[in-house]
Amino acid sequence: MEHADMNLCELLNRRDQSLGVGAELFYSDPIELVRGDGAHVFDRAGRRYVDFYNNVPAVGHGNARVADAISLQQRTLNINSRYVHEGVIAYAERLAALHAPAIESIVFSCSGTEANEVAIQMARIATGKRGIICSNAAYHGNSDLVGRLTNVRPGGNPESEDVHSFPFPDWYRPVVSGLSEEALAGEYLARISEAIARLKATDVGFAGMLICSIFANEGLPDLPQGLMKRAADLVREAGGLVIADEVQAGFCRTGHWWGYQATGFTPDIVVMGKPMGNGVPIAGTGASHAIVDAFRAKTDHFNTTASTPLQAAAGMAVLDELEEQHLLENAQSLGQVLKDGLTRIAARNTHLGEVRGRGLFIVVDIVTDKDSRTPDQVLAAAICERLKTLGFLTANAGAYKNLIKVRPPLVISLGDIAAFLETFEAITFEMDAAH
Amino acid sequence: MEHADMNLCELLNRRDQSLGVGAELFYSDPIELVRGDGAHVFDRAGRRYVDFYNNVPAVGHGNARVADAISLQQRTLNINSRYVHEGVIAYAERLAALHAPAIESIVFSCSGTEANEVAIQMARIATGKRGIICSNAAYHGNSDLVGRLTNVRPGGNPESEDVHSFPFPDWYRPVVSGLSEEALAGEYLARISEAIARLKATDVGFAGMLICSIFANEGLPDLPQGLMKRAADLVREAGGLVIADEVQAGFCRTGHWWGYQATGFTPDIVVMGKPMGNGVPIAGTGASHAIVDAFRAKTDHFNTTASTPLQAAAGMAVLDELEEQHLLENAQSLGQVLKDGLTRIAARNTHLGEVRGRGLFIVVDIVTDKDSRTPDQVLAAAICERLKTLGFLTANAGAYKNLIKVRPPLVISLGDIAAFLETFEAITFEMDAAH
pLDDT tens digits for A199-241? Predict the structure, then answer.
């Protein structure tokens, strides 16, 4: 087929036929992408978009080091982990060292879903109990078990026999209003204790808490100092393990290597994914020797295309890029510019309720008005559509789908951020006036 | 570290530390691999092994077309499926066409486990019931749900509330002895009906049957003509869907494109994986528009690193290689040479009970003696170790772990097969004399 003849409508029809009607798409007027370079992607007409959404290509779209590494490794050897391969071992060692001393061994898999499955199995084996608690607006993956921890999606079931949820620590729309910060912290901790107690009251028992270290899908709430440490202590006092889902939070995104460093707690089990391979499917679950060895002994776990030389090559190239391109520092310094800019814009706009987040992961909470703080999902979607039309990719997300999620590849430049802020200000000013 | 100084013992110790004690390894004396080329792999000392085991590198270790394809795509663009990408659509179309007319749309994922999770969710949504039946010696993956269909592994639970099993159709060690072929077929079909009836007697109900199309892990039983079609009819008459796990059977392995063509039935849902990306993590679940669209509508399913341009590039390159290198024909003609050779050797050896299989997937059933047909796992493992020492990779497998699994990359040559047969004959003759 001649590409010039192929219009998007025809392509969307083919997509419905071949991938199924309802396969998720961004934007009411979707875009076809054909090329990427750093923080930029291009559609078929050559139109450029600055990517302010995607965390998977953290070290840049079209990253040459990653492409070269996987090409060389695939051409050299890519084989399952029942044969010894030094590259896989060296990668596991390097990852574990980034979490030292809590994390000592890594079990690799191919997706965040698989890595969370492993984490839950580890917690269950370590504790001899089955019950897991999670937040009431979590997303941790799409399998039968992990999907039951997903309360933000259609068909998500907030409570099942072995999964109970607690209200995520929301300071902008608190679960109880009028409390002091300390009283509200106590309230949230009490809700966690209640969820644990409900599990302990049954045969299921309590195995652990699985949370995104920064509550990304919940909306990056601003947490008071020490809250997460107190939550982790509660979990351990109740005999459970603390599982930090770092699939969104990890690999320098927050201006820290790991999200749990940003929110101040130490996990027993960490789950890594998404940016780990810059688009090559890799995920991993890390824990202490005791936890991992017990898991290995009980499950005989094996994953054919995980723990491979290909995964290790991609993962190593990503770590090299993060370090050599100083992307941790980029996330810190440019993240601050981004947040300060958005905060300044929000202060003058009725519908920009709050700006939250850390590093290069910021959300703007879109509201009908600042007094009621009522989430405005429609306006949030409209802002994302408008930004897209003007060449900036974002998406709306969060527990109420009313957040503008601003999360560019870590290679984003100061110039791109300045351009984004200028456009964001203009759009939201216009919309404020129109409402 | 100087590689010359690094011995395997040290490497295994590092592996225990970084991946966990008990991470699966082949051979009591494991091997470290550093390079592969076609059907050959090489250890650090430069020693060559002919690979007679691995189905993932179906189009060859170090395949240049796959390496070039993923390198080019990763350098060009690799992004999640919420943006439209023509390559992903074209790949789904090409895959579906290979299953036409039963299969119309594909849901991609990153592993066989994930693809089986999707298949079960599809069957549950289509039928409104939850119960799945599988064979009593199946392996379909490692998640909480799919792991419950896995009866061959430590910790596997053959029966749970929503998973019931039936004895796999074994003609070498029949579930009831002394029956005619037709009577035994009736017996196996009755066991399937019983498993369905057990589910239907509860609130769980019956959603479908998930089987490997060729019962690979069970040991590639020789099935009478028409048995699988009758089993599929039974399942559909009971209101369930037939799910064909093609993760091992698919992509020309059996001398057919798909295992269900070899065993003669048409699935409602197919699950693909392993050789699909020649080592790049890709899997897929295919079904009719009705089944896939209903799944999409109910689940809002999304998988960040699946349905990507990278997966499509790898998958397309594999399909190109299968076709252009005539690997279907290779599986047919060389598979026949391999099976005939092994059958000839087995006829003269007390411990080689039976040779079964199709195309380039053959098993030799190792027994204490041909009269009792008692599985001899220890001897099977010893043969694999000895073959490895002499430069040929195989492994023992099957419901009794007493099968020598002979399953080379599809690019294997006639010369390699002749060398393997010669060595296999010499080893087993020696062992026969020694026993």
Answer: 999 999 999 999 999 999 999 999 999 999 999 999 999 999 9
Predicted local distance difference test score (pLDDT) of residue B431: 84
Structure ipTM: 0.96
Domain end marker among B324, B346, B372:
B324
In this structure, the answer to whether residues A174 and A157 fall within a common structural domain is yes
State pLDDT tens for residues B191-229. Answer: 999 999 999 999 999 999 999 999 999 999 999 999 999
Instruction: List the single residue in A62, A86, A110 with the smallest CB-CB distance to B77.
Output: A62
Contacts of B61 in chain A (CB under 8 A): 77-79
> Is A189 near chain B, with CB under 8 Å?
no
Pairing of the two strands B33-37 and A163-166: unpaired
Question: A161 — contact with chain B (CB < 8 Å)?
Answer: no
- Which of B269, B304, B308, B407 has the most A C-beta neighbours within 10 Å, making it the best mutation to test the interface with A? B304
Number of domains forming the structure of chain A: 2
Q: Could you tell me which chain A residue has the CA closest to the CA of B72?
A: A67
Give residue A155's pLDDT band: very low, low, confident or very high (50, 70, 90).
very low
How many Å is the Cα radius of gyration of chain B? 22
CA distance A124 to B264: 41
Q: Taking CB atoms and an 8 Å cutoff, what residues of chain A touch B401?
A: none
Q: How far apart are CA A304 and CA B141, in angstroms?
A: 10
Q: Are residues B164 and B297 in the same domain?
A: yes
From its phi and psi, is residue B190 left (phi > 0), alpha (psi between -120 and 50) or beta? alpha
Q: Taking CB atoms and an 8 Å limit, are A21 and B289 in contact across chains?
A: yes
Q: Which pLDDT score, from 0 to 100, does residue B285 have?
A: 98
- Whether residue A215 is found in the same domain as residue A242: yes
Give the domain-ending residue among B305, B324, B343: B324
pLDDT beneath 50: ranges in chain B: 1-5, 152-157
Q: Residues of A with CB below 8 A from B279's CB?
A: 74, 78-79, 305, 308, 310
B273/A92 touch (CB, cutoff 8 Å), yes or no: no
Q: How far is A249 from chain B (nearest CA, A)?
A: 15
Sheet with A241-245, side-by-side order of all strands = A105-109, A283-287, A269-272, A241-245, A206-212, A131-135, A163-166
Residues B159 and B305 in one domain: yes
User: What is the pLDDT averaged over residues A390-419?
Assistant: 97
> What residue numbers bound the domain in which B184 lies?
64-324
Q: Is B48 on the interface with A (CB under 8 A)?
A: no
- Kindly state whether residues A247 and A356 are assigned to the same domain: no
Going by their DSSP bridges, the two strands A283-287 and A105-109 should be labelled as: antiparallel
Q: Is A425 on the interface with B (CB under 8 A)?
A: no
Distance CA A238, CA A332 (A): 36
Q: Residue B272: what pLDDT?
A: 98
Residue A359: give its domain's CATH number: 3.90.1150.10
**pLDDT band at residue A156 using 50, 70 and 90 as cut-offs:** very low
**Has residue A2 got a pLDDT over 60?**
no
Average pLDDT over residues A243-270: 98
pLDDT score at A435: 66
Q: Does B110 sit within 8 Å of A81, measured CB to CB? A: no
**In sequence order, what are the beta bridge partners of B206?**
B131
Interchain pair A93, B310: CB under 8 A:
no
Distance CA A428, CA A383 (A): 7
Sort out which chain B residues have CB atoms less than 8 A from A145's CB and list them: 143-145
Cα separations (Å) of A100 from A105, A231, A248? 10, 21, 20
Note whether A89 contacts B: Cβ–Cβ < 8 A: yes
